[in-house]
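Inverse folding, one chain.
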């Protein structure tokens, strides 16, 4: 059995510590990359759903505007998506602040 000097043992321990640190750093970097890809995927998914919804609304409106003689139908087709859009924008831009209640306070 070969004899190891204290310097060789110290070098071996340092190499093991460096390998563990490298593995942890690479795992952390991989996790960051995965999280960034998830955010990008969610954003693209949201954008594609918004574009698809807008295309459906515009298509239906175009068909009704170009082929319908009924004014009530025309106004309905134009007003309903506008109401949904106004509701969504208003809800997104409205800021509500809740004050934290004290323990034992009235509810």
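Residues assigned per position:
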């Amino acid at each position: 059995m070969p004899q190891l000097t204290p310097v060789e043992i110290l070098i071996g321990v340092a190499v093991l510590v460096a390998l563990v640190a490298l593995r942890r750093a690479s795992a952390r970097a991989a996790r960051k990359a995965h999280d960034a890809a998830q955010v990008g995927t969610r954003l693209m998914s949201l954008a594609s759903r918004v574009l698809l919804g807008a295309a459906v609304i515009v298509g239906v409106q175009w068909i009704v505007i170009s082929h319908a003689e009924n004014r009530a139908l025309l106004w309905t087709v134009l007003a309903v998506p506008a109401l949904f859009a106004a509701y969504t924008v208003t809800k997104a831009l409205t800021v509500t602040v809740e004050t934290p209640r004290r323990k034992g306070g009235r509810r």
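The mean pLDDT is 81. Residues 6-67 form the longest helix (62 residues).
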